[in-house]
Design goal:
mainly alpha; 4 helices; 59% helix; elongated
């Protein structure tokens, strides 16, 4: 059985057990419900620690799976065939440059300071 379902049913069962015990006590029904909620919360904290930890672990694992799937889908939508976090070129045809291929607007050696030859313009 799923850990979340198991823990939730145990919490509901504790609440109902405490409420049934309080039924013969002569007091307002709303007060009985509030007392049952508080007492069952305390009992659940003490008695259901293992199931609560199991549920938290399963919820954390599910959140991690959703995060990985979301990153994979975003990479696929962006056109990146590689999964996120991988280094290096995706294929032998793709350059290993981290900035990607140089565009027509950007010279391939943009990181290098301009020399006197570059400033003079094209030579005829």
């Amino acid at each position: 059985m799923n850990a979340t379902v198991k823990y939730t049913l145990a919490r509901i069962g504790l609440f109902l057990a405490v409420f049934v015990v309080l039924l013969p006590v002569p007091m307002n029904i709303l007060l009985k419900l509030m007392i049952a909620v508080l007492v069952s919360a305390g009992l659940a904290y003490l008695l259901l620690r293992g199931w609560r930890d199991e549920m938290a672990t399963s919820l954390a694992a599910a959140a991690e799976r959703r995060k990985v799937e979301k990153e994979r889908l975003r990479a696929a939508l962006a056109g990146d065939d590689r999964p996120a976090g991988t280094e290096g070129p995706a294929s032998a045809d793709e350059p290993a440059n981290a900035d990607g291929p140089a565009s027509a607007d950007e010279p391939a050696n943009a990181d290098r300071p301009a020399s006197a030859d570059d400033r003079a313009g094209p030579q005829a």
